[in-house]
Design a protein that fits this description.
2 domains; globular; alpha/beta; 287 residues
Length: 287
């Protein structure tokens, strides 16, 4: 497949979350080019969620998949070029050539770049949905709708058995920073619960600097499990593991929810893992 080329050029807009497959594609391209003696050039692009937000657990090596290709936190704070450098470093492969950005700073959100927002996915139509995605994406491992099939994917979530006001009140009682919840009914046009009337909430971020989408995810799952123990369910295991475990990077989140263990302790452990990764990544940063 690589016959006839000297160098592969990668130009992809990532969103800064471990689940997304853009960085997995970069990893596979670097591997293939190294195997065949081809060069790699990455045209760097902004991390839409800044390069300073490093949060969430580091993926357990036993749960590597296309939605979790490398032991990094849920929010890794890297540009796509920096991820390429990290991948090559950790696998002892030739370092790709990075064409760096001009003027980007780590604290920048995407809307501070003056670049047009081009949806990196049909299900991430706005920066708002991308901001919330690292938390609500975990619902992909459950029987709830994560909002696919609506005009507000990952902002709107729910299921036919969810009572909107009850869920909104329960999430509000958590007093999470920078966010509020609006009760909604919605009908997905495709994906989970197609054509079924669902109850749920829309997540509204009022202060994106204060809102921690990664921490929000476990609290959301725990609240849904507590309110609807007979209806809430994980998607059945496939290929030997639950899909939620692939998303979460280990079975720890699922087991914490199922046993009613402490979300605070879970999140504290995640914070320690993220801090260790932040130290480890320092030598591959470009900005």
């Amino acid at each position: 497949m690589l016959d006839g080329i000297d160098t592969m050029v990668i130009d992809l807009q990532d969103i800064g979350a471990r689940f997304t497959t853009y960085i997995s594609t970069v990893a596979h391209v670097i591997d293939a080019c190294a195997e065949h003696g081809k060069g790699v050039i990455i045209l760097d692009r902004p991390n839409p969620l800044t390069g300073t937000r490093v949060t969430g657990n580091v993926l357990n090596a036993g749960y590597v998949s296309f939605i979790g290709i490398h032991p990094i936190p849920i929010l890794h704070g890297l540009t796509i070029g920096e991820f390429g450098r990290l991948w090559a470093r950790d696998r002892q492969l030739p370092t790709p050539v990075i064409v760096p950005m001009d003027g980007w700073r780590r604290a920048m959100w995407f809307d501070g770049t003056a670049l047009p927002w081009v949806p990196p996915s049909p299900n991430l139509p706005t920066l708002d949905s991308t901001l919330i995605f690292p938390g609500t994406c975990l619902l992909e491992g459950t029987n709830l709708s994560e909002g696919r099939g609506t005009t507000r994917p990952f902002e709107i979530i729910g299921a036919p058995w969810v009572e909107p006001d009850v869920l909104a009140d329960a999430l509000t009682e958590l007093a999470l920073d920078g966010v509020s919840f609006r009760p909604v009914y919605f009908t997905p046009m495709f994906s989970k619960h197609t054509d079924a009337r669902c109850g749920g909430v829309q997540t509204h971020v009022s202060d994106r600097e204060a809102f921690d989408s990664v921490t929000f995810g476990p609290w959301l799952l725990a609240t849904l499990k507590r309110l609807y123990p007979d209806d809430f369910a994980w998607l059945p295991p496939n290929d030997g593991s639950h899909f939620i475990d692939k998303l979460a990077g280990s079975p720890e989140l699922r087991e914490t929810i199922d046993t009613g263990a402490s979300i605070e302790a879970l999140v504290a452990g995640w914070s320690r893992e993220a801090a260790a990764f932040e130290r480890d990544r320092s030598d591959i940063l470009l900005y």
